[in-house]
Design a protein that fits this description.
Blueprint lengths: L2 E6 L4 H10 L5 E8 L7 H4 L11 E3 L2 H4 L4 E4 L6 H5 L7 E4 L9 H7 L9 E2 L5 E3 L5 E3 L9 E3 L3 H15 L8 E7 L14 H4 L4 E2 L9 H10 L7 E7 L6 E8 L6 H11 L6 E3 L17 E8 L4 E8 L3 H15 L16
Parallel strand pairs: 1-2, 1-4, 2-3, 4-5, 5-9, 6-9, 10-12, 14-15
Antiparallel strand pairs: 7-8, 10-13, 11-12, 13-16, 15-16
Helix pairs in contact: 1-10, 6-8
Length: 352
């Protein structure tokens, strides 16, 4: 049975990546695409690479236009999707690719976003290690089965969380004094015309931003690490814009507990993601590049023990638009609906 799909925010980067994946999905049919200021335009005018969808025209982003579909993806700015989602039928699977439904604590939302808190939905990182209240070890995947409301992750948040959660869950690293520095492509910020994203500002330069604990993905990462077993994680998080259109290279470090060996570290990360179709831990002594995951739903992780510093060092590569956003959304919907989890998704990147 083919399921009908609508994508809101279809003229943006995240919306375009969703459409690229969905266009090749065996179980979905894209019937409606919507936008705000670009409503009335042919989709192809804003997503010229999506030739198979040239027949579609952008409609207004309204609950009426989105209702009546089996699945609705919302690729909208924060503070926008919550109001729209509240007006959609309960039996519709709705995926928010924005931030409105990621944070469980209203105080976190108020501190980092502000405005109305719309409540947390099932979190869309299936591979995230979690520890239940009874101590049972599992994955976020189980919490997505049958879900009708799904919050796709922040791309930076999923990168740091997947990089460190195995060490937390295995009891090998401390949850205080975690440090993460990320090289990120500007596509994660969307198509908004801001000076800091202009080519003349980015090319030939590395540009730190949201320095000093102000980035909005910090509470999301802390929330994820608590799910993996951390008590009160503290995090220094610094993203750096670099001149690549897409991709994240996240270098995350944490203090190891006394007596931890390099072999234990490697084994813990390999065990955490054993059998996962999209998350792969590289052999000891190997680290990934962003080019290795370009255009794929793949997460590559290299892990090492810095014995002199007493810290574990993880290097994780992810495509922020694919696995960081759109791929995670589609993968989560596949799980929620009982489809093949890998349907429509690829582990093969694009090179050079």
């Amino acid at each position: 049975m083919t399921l009908s799909v609508a994508v809101a925010g279809a003229s943006g980067y995240a919306g375009g990546e969703l459409l690229r994946i969905l266009a090749a999905h065996p179980d979905f049919e894209i019937r409606t695409v919507t936008a705000h200021s670009n409503a009335g335009h042919p989709l192809i005018a804003h997503q010229p690479h999506l030739r198979s969808l040239a027949h579609l025209t952008l409609q207004d982003t309204t609950p009426a236009n989105l209702a009546g579909h089996d699945v609705v993806f919302l690729a909208l700015p924060h503070g926008t999707s919550g109001e729209i989602a509240a007006q959609l039928p309960e039996d519709t699977v709705v995926v928010d690719c924005g931030a409105d439904h990621r944070l469980e604590d209203p105080a976190d939302w108020e501190a980092f976003y502000g405005g109305e808190h719309f409540g947390a939905w099932a979190y869309g990182v299936p591979e995230l290690p979690v520890v239940a209240t009874d101590g049972t070890v599992g994955k976020q995947r189980e919490r997505l089965v049958g879900a009708r409301r799904i919050a796709a992750p922040g791309c930076n948040a999923s990168a740091v969380s997947l990089a460190l959660a195995p060490g937390i869950q295995a009891g090998l690293i401390e949850d205080e004094d975690i440090v993460a520095v990320l090289a990120v492509g500007p596509s994660g910020a969307g198509k908004s015309l801001k000076t800091m994203y202009l080519a003349s500002e980015i090319l030939g330069s590395a540009n730190p931003y949201a320095v000093g604990g102000t980035h909005r993905h910090i509470p999301e990462i802390q929330q994820n690490l608590r799910k993996a077993g951390a008590a009160a994680p503290t995090l220094s998080f610094t993203p750096v814009l670099v001149p690549m259109s897409r991709g994240i290279l996240a270098t995350s470090t944490a203090r190891v507990k006394p007596g931890t060996t390099a072999e234990q570290v490697q084994q813990a990360w390999e065990a955490a993601y054993a059998g996962e179709p999209f998350v792969q831990v590289l052999p000891a002594g190997t680290v990934p590049r962003t080019s290795d995951v370009l255009g794929a739903n793949t997460v590559l992780i290299g892990v090492a023990l810095d014995e002199a510093a007493g810290r574990v060092v993880t290097v994780l590569a992810i495509d922020n638009l694919y696995k960081g956003t759109a791929g995670a959304a589609v993968q989560s919907v596949n799980i929620a609906l009982g489809l093949d989890e890998t349907a429509g998704l690829t582990v093969n990147g694009v090179a050079p």
